[in-house]
Design goal:
By secondary structure, the chain is an alpha+beta fold. It has one domain. The protein has five helices and 14 strands. Strands 8, 9, 10, 11, 12, 13 and 14 form a seven-stranded antiparallel sheet that branches. Strand 4 and strand 5 form a beta hairpin. The longest helix has 20 residues. The radius of gyration is 21 Å and the shape is globular. The termini are far apart. The N terminus and C terminus are likely disordered. Keywords: Signal.
Length: 236
């Protein structure tokens, strides 16, 4: 009898693992109603989500189901009627039945104004470049979050940041724009070079799109050099 019970447990475990493995990774942007259904006032209060949620997503892969909220402080409105944010926060929650566990959080802000000297006016998520896809085909979603700032001359002297989450490990690419060669600076975490080639190539393509859309100034040499193990890049 004991052997039969053990065999049944083993079969149940095998079927559970097989079911999880068979899940096709998928993601979607949540509607306003779907966002409010998951991120209720009580849930936001409990998890200290104090800013308005600008955009929310859900994704599912063989490791489970996740919800992501991108929130911005919405401090004021400028002359062009654009919302100005001084701070942004992002949250990722894994949902297991009735339990939601926070997996990671992003906190960033524009460079503070000192004695009337304003270097940056706003910071916000660049959802055009954000994505939740299984880039290397291992059955796990590889979240990529992109955001940036406006400097005194808009994008020309603002900053951009690309965050890649691979198997729970965050890798960052930090970039300072400038129309002056000496003013540009790109810092790449060493872990970027440990990422699968598919993810590295996808990030390089994102950088090229950002250049094409005039959202960042990455000379071709920057992106070419990223094929080598360099943790800090400056324009030559």
């Amino acid at each position: 009898m004991k052997k039969i019970y053990t065999l049944l447990l083993l079969c149940l475990f095998t079927l559970t693992v097989a079911a999880q493995t068979d899940i096709t990774p998928s993601s979607k942007k949540l509607t306003k109603a779907e966002t409010e259904e998951f991120f209720t006032p009580a849930f936001k209060k409990k998890n200290l989500i104090n800013f308005p949620i600008f955009r929310a997503y859900t994704y599912q892969d063989k490791s489970g189901t996740y919800y992501v909220a991108l929130s911005e402080s919405a401090d004021t409105v400028n002359k062009e009627k654009d919302t100005v944010n001084y701070t942004i926060k992002a949250f990722n929650f894994k949902v297991d039945k009735t339990i939601s566990l926070k997996k990671w959080e992003i906190n960033d802000f524009k460079i503070p104004t000192i004695k009337g000297d304003e270097k940056e006016s706003s910071i916000w998520f660049w959802t055009k470049y954000c994505g939740f896809n299984d880039l290397d085909g291992d059955g796990l979603i590889d979240p990529i979050i992109v955001y940036g700032t406006f400097g005194l001359n808009g994008y020309d002297d603002g900053r951009a940041k690309i965050l890649i989450y691979y198997k729970g490990i965050k890798t960052a690419i930090r970039h300072q724009n400038s129309v002056i060669d000496a003013g540009r600076n790109t810092q790449v975490d060493a872990t970027f070079y440990q990422l699968p080639a598919q993810i590295q190539n996808h990030v390089k393509e994102l950088m090229e799109k950002m250049v094409k859309n005039n959202h960042a100034i990455f000379p071709a040499a920057y992106i070419d050099k990223m094929g080598k193990k360099i943790t800090q890049l400056t324009n030559e």
